[in-house]
Automatic annotation (TrEMBL):
<keyword id="KW-0723">Serine/threonine-protein kinase</keyword>
<keyword id="KW-0067">ATP-binding</keyword>
<protein>
    <submittedName>
        <fullName>ATP-binding protein</fullName>
    </submittedName>
</protein>
<keyword id="KW-0547">Nucleotide-binding</keyword>
<dbReference type="InterPro" id="IPR050267">
    <property type="entry name" value="Anti-sigma-factor_SerPK"/>
</dbReference>
<keyword id="KW-0808">Transferase</keyword>
<keyword id="KW-0418">Kinase</keyword>
<dbReference type="GO" id="GO:0005524">
    <property type="term" value="F:ATP binding"/>
</dbReference>
<dbReference type="InterPro" id="IPR036890">
    <property type="entry name" value="HATPase_C_sf"/>
</dbReference>
<dbReference type="Pfam" id="PF13581">
    <property type="entry name" value="HATPase_c_2"/>
</dbReference>
<feature type="domain" description="Histidine kinase/HSP90-like ATPase">
    <location>
        <begin position="16"/>
        <end position="123"/>
    </location>
</feature>
<dbReference type="InterPro" id="IPR003594">
    <property type="entry name" value="HATPase_dom"/>
</dbReference>
Length: 131
């Protein structure tokens, strides 16, 4: 098998952009963390909820959630794709605002996060968790 690599399957959940998406994503992450042997899934559930909620509010259907361990550093990656062309923006802190705290929360709870461009103007927002 010289020159051939086998890629393991990545647990993936495809969601419709509706109010049930964040809850379904939390349950999915909880199950994947359990399979990975991670006992405390609080951070993962919170991060995926924030990323899916952003995709729901600012993106376009479908929303795709993937969870996997990065082989390079062993950290768990939560990857949320959507078909929307908008990009995440971290807004300045505003104590009177009723929204806009999700990305600062994700930033505070994870080792790193970012955005990858996908085909057709879509995007993937990812976060690496210290789990």
């Amino acid at each position: 098998m010289s020159g051939t690599a086998i890629a393991p399957e990545v647990p993936t959940l495809v969601l419709a952009a509706d109010e049930r998406a964040p809850g379904a994503a939390r349950r999915f992450v909880s199950g994947v963390f359990r399979e990975l042997g991670i006992r405390d899934d609080f951070t993962g559930r919170l991060v995926v909820c924030e990323l899916v909620t952003n995709a729901l509010r600012h993106g376009a259907s479908p929303i795709v959630v993937r969870v996997f361990r990065d082989e390079r550093d062993g950290l768990v990656v939560i990857d949320v794709w959507d078909a929307g062309t908008g990009r995440p923006v971290v807004r300045p802190e505003n104590h009177a605002a009723t929204s806009g705290r999700g990305l600062p929360l994700v930033s505070a709870l994870t080792r790193a996060w970012g955005v990858r461009e996908l085909n057709g103007g879509a995007k993937a927002v990812w976060a690496k968790c210290d789990c």
